[in-house]
Amino acid sequence: MVTVLFPHLAAVEIEQVDRQDGQIRVVARTRGDPVCCPSCGTATGKVHGYHRRRLADRPVDGLPVVIELRLRRLVCVNLDCVRQTFHEQVPGLAGRYGRRTPGATALVIACALALAERAGASLLATIGLLLSRTSVLSTLMALPEPPSTVPAVIGVDDFAIKRGQRYATVIIDAVTHRCLEVLPDRLGVTFAHWLQAHPGVRLICRDRSAAYAAGARDGAPQAVQCADRWHLLNNLSEAVEKLALAHRGCFRDIATGQGRDEGPTVRRTRSRYAAIHALLGQGVTNNEIARRLHLALNTVKKYARAPHVEQLIGGSKRGATLVDPFRDYLRSRRAAEPPNPA
Ligand SMILES: [Zn+2]
After folding, report:
1. Which of 116, 126, 144, 237 is deepest in the core (most CB within 10 A)?
2. Ligand 1: distance of its center to the CA of 171 in Å?
3. 150: number of Cβ within 10 Å
């Protein structure tokens, strides 16, 4: 059973297993087999002394497992060897200095990588590996850096360290989504320096930021720049929203079954737009149009600026009101009545 469930204990002799104080204790010792000296390789079984080590192992049944292992200090029998004695190691169970078995360390690393210190320590405690969040963090920090090769496709974007005040830049491998670098600001020149120090980038996915565009141009002129998927979708949704807003009158008409029967305000906007643009086409000035059509100069300018009439109809922030159908009538009454004596 031991070799199937606990293969890392197969190399030692288990003397006792008990369950006390909410943990499982395994008392074990190494067998008396000869061990090779780490300096000269001579096999020796001559014991100089013993020492005990306590190792945290992978939990069992939600309980912490502690292995109390007796190890030998052996004498090198080669008289020419620089080493007189040495501690024996048990590969796969007790490395040098470690206080956990490799299996337990693998669990800690997996949790630390996925959840970092506090959440990692909390999950590990749940499954029976008790260690502080600082121990989880130091395990994480002790991991060797993964070999870094500059990927051909990278993504770059900014993020807020303090919203509205301090921003940094994150560069990711666009294929593996692994973070490659965090730059201390979001300046184009900082990004350009990073690209110069990491040649080989062929494609840069970025947002619409002019700073990153300039940085990419300066740092990696050979690289193609493109909008990333999020910003493409964001741009598309903004454009669709703008268009839908400009034509919301059409949607309202369809919904109410009115078809082309537009309100009087919209009809007036259309005829006014046509009149103003007809005069503009004849080369009449804005001032002259305002005078001829009895309109304010700013109104004429607004109509002159609009590339199409839908923008003026949909662009209004004000929704339809109950007064709209009577607005022309009210205007005609106001024009017909003599001004109130002050
Ligand atoms: Zn030796």
Report:
1. 116
2. 51
3. 15
CATH number for the domain formed by residue range(s) 153-232? 3.30.420.10
Distance 44 CA to ligand 1 centre (A): 9
Q: Count of CB atoms within 10 A of residue 195's CB?
A: 24
Give 31 Cα–ligand 1 centroid separation in angstroms. Answer: 20
Give the Cβ contact number of residue 107 at 10 Å: 21
Question: 75 C-alpha to center of ligand 1: Å?
Answer: 8
- Compute the residue count for the chain: 342
Query: What pLDDT shows up at residue 244?
Result: 84
Separation of 48 CA from ligand 1 center, angstroms?
14
What's the CA-to-centroid distance between 12 and ligand 1, angstroms? Answer: 23
| Alpha carbon distance 37, 51 (integer Å) | 18
Which single residue is written with the structure tokens 């002050």?
A: 342
Summarised one tens digit per residue, pLDDT across range 258-268 is: 555 567 788 88
Residue spans per domain, the chain = 2-99, 102-143, 153-232, 247-336
Span from the CA of 84 to the centroid of ligand 1 (angstroms): 7
- The CA 87 to ligand 1 mean position distance, Å, reads 12
Handedness of CA 277, 314, 270, 296 (dihedral sign): negative
CB 72 within 8 A of CB 46: no
If pLDDT is split at 50, 70 and 90, which confidence band does 319 have?
low
CB-based contacts of 151: which residues, under 8 Å, 6+ apart?
173, 174, 175, 176, 180, 201
Give residue for tokens 């490799």.
Answer: 102
Q: Is the dihedral of CA 336, 340, 341, 342 positive or negative?
A: negative
- Number of neighbouring beta carbons within 10 Å of residue 215: 26
Q: Which two tokens stand for residue 95?
A: 């490395």
Cα of 37 from ligand 1 centre, angstroms: 5
Which residue type occupies 255?
Answer: A
Identify whether the C-beta of residue 229 lies closer than 8 Å to the C-beta of residue 153: no
pLDDT tens, position by position, 7-65: 888 889 999 999 988 899 999 999 889 999 999 999 999 999 999 999 999 998 889 99
